[in-house]
């Protein structure tokens, strides 16, 4: 059995558990450091202990997948808060060379995020001053970018003058200084790829937008990729929390000398051109990157494909299930979701793929941000497809979903159906439909709170969520699959935004 060491982006289930579940009951043992040394949200992990764990295990491994953010800053949220000097961080990064010295044959894949710049004011995952000044900091970057492109209007410039007058410069200097360090780290990651230290890297964008500080940083790194001539080894596309799954699929495909072809079919004729919420480009361009980053290629037809993926999207603007006005249990709110897409056709086509073509089928449920589509789930159930899929996801951003279901499907195409795969399908339905689209809203509404709040990791809110998910499983999963047991439910960061689950098929 081959071993792959993973340093995750943080300790949350999506980063820590998902790759282990995707790779379970295969020819691979997925090694991860103890959760206890990875920190929690704004609490930094033990960077020295994480590196020590990696050095202790690297010799026995057949591959390594490394989060640069964890190894340099101690995680995704600490990357936005730290006060490390650039030299200290570069010295940490250089230790990757020792891994290659210890195990020269090992392929090392890595990912290093471009620091995000949210539009909203909240210090939940940002520096404390972002609570009061977050939207102004974002708008500052947006107008600066527009000025650079000669697209700023007179009103934009007047607004910028007001922001520069009111925004405390100490906060702006702190924020921009940390971004500059992030640029330097990402540049060095690119250079180390050119030097052969990293075999493949992804430099993803977390919560990207067309204009702003993140978009400008992206252009700096993109130029550095070109100048170092590593465009085929260093990809840039929107994502964060699912990149480790993608790189795991790539490594497994690499070991098996496979280049799977995936045919992509949309629910709407114009869906390929939709720009998803929290992203900066048409979804089809991201899908191509996601497939290639996972070690595959996009097929031009189902007949030449190894895997087929149906993509659930509206015909135009995407909506967010966290927005109060969205109620997917009732009639859909707009033409782009109703008359301008055809869920019936993609579900019928999905059945044809599974039953006639006998090919693995992936469902990318990205009609909404932050949750799956109840209508699609119901139709898949009516068609008897829910537990015949090679992959399904419908959580958080479009790219988080793609970076989960595509690797699921690729690993399935090698190792076939396993009990662990069935359990992770059940997990996805419980989380993406049962929690994200249903229980989160209901429990928050009943308690008069928002998704940013919960009464602890395993408090009353977690118990309420468990009760809702057990009803969901009993009513909607048991008739199709038998006994789907929920062994644990918790709220990892003490809020209703994400959920931790342990699921078994008995």
What do these coordinates show?
This protein has helices spanning 13-16, 18-22, 47-57, 68-73, 86-94, 96-102, 130-148, 154-166, 169-194, 213-227, 243-255, 283-293, 343-357, 374-382, 398-415, 419-447, 460-481; strands at residues 2-7, 28-31, 63-67, 108-111, 200-202, 234-235, 261-266, 297-299, 307-312, 319-320, 361-365, 368-369, 391-393, 484-490, 500-505. The protein is α/β, with parallel strands linked by helices. The protein folds into two domains: 2-117 and 172-254, 3-Layer(aba) Sandwich (Rossmann fold), CATH 3.40.50; 259-417, Rossmann fold. Helix 10 (213-227) links the parallel strand 5 (200-202) and strand 6 (234-235). The longest helix has 29 residues, at 419-447. The relative contact order is 0.09.
């Amino acid at each position: 059995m081959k071993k792959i060491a993973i340093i995750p982006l943080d300790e949350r289930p999506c980063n820590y558990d998902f790759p282990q579940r995707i790779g379970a009951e295969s020819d691979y043992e997925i090694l991860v450091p103890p959760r206890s040394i990875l920190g929690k949200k704004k609490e930094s992990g033990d960077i020295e202990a994480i590196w020590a764990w990696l050095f202790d295990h690297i010799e026995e491994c057949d591959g390594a997948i490394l989060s640069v953010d964890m190894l340099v800053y101690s995680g995704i949220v600490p990357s936005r808060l730290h006060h490390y000097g650039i030299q200290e961080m570069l010295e940490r990064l250089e230790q990757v060379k020792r891994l290659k010295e210890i195990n020269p044959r090992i392929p090392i894949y890595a990912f290093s995020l471009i620091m995000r710049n949210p539009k909203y004011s909240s210090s939940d995952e940002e520096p404390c001053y972002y609570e009061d000044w977050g939207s102004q900091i974002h708008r500052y970057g947006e107008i600066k970018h527009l000025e650079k492109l000669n697209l700023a209007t007179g009103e934009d410039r007047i607004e910028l003058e007001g922001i520069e007058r009111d925004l405390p410069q100490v906060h702006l200097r702190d924020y921009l200084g940390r971004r500059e360090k992030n640029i330097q780290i990402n540049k060095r990651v690119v250079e180390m790829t050119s030097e052969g230290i990293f075999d493949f890297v992804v430099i993803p964008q977390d919560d990207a937008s067309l204009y702003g500080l993140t978009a400008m940083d992206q252009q700096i790194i993109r130029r550095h990729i070109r100048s170092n001539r590593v465009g085929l080894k260093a990809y840039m596309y929107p994502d964060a929390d699912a990149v480790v799954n993608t790189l795991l699929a790539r490594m497994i495909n690499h070991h098996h000398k496979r280049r799977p072809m995936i045919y992509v079919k949309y629910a709407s004729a114009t869906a390929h051109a939709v720009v998803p919420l929290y992203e900066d480009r048409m979804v089809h361009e991201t899908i191509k990157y996601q497939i290639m980053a996972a070690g595959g290629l996009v097929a031009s037809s189902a007949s030449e494909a190894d895997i087929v993926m149906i993509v659930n999207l509206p015909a135009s603007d995407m909506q967010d299930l966290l927005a109060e006005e969205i109620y997917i249990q009732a009639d859909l709110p707009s033409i782009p979701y109703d008359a301008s897409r055809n869920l019936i056709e993609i579900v019928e086509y999905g059945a044809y793929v599974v039953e006639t073509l006998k090919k693995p089928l992936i469902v990318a449920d990205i009609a909404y941000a932050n949750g799956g589509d109840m209508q699609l789930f119901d139709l898949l159930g009516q068609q008897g497809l829910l537990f015949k899929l090679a992959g399904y996801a419908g959580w958080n951003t479009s790219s988080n979903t793609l970076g989960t279901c595509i690797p699921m499907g690729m690993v399935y195409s090698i190792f076939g159906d396993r009990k662990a795969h069935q359990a992770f399908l059940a997990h996805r339905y419980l989380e993406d439909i049962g929690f994200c689209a249903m229980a989160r809203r209901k429990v928050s509404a009943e308690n008069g709170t928002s998704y940013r709040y919960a009464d602890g990791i395993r408090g009353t809110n977690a118990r309420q969520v468990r009760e809702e998910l057990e009803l969901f499983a009993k009513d909607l999963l048991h008739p199709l699959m038998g006994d789907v047991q929920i062994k644990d439910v918790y709220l990892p960061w003490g809020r209703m935004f994400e959920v931790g689950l342990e699921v078994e098929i008995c």
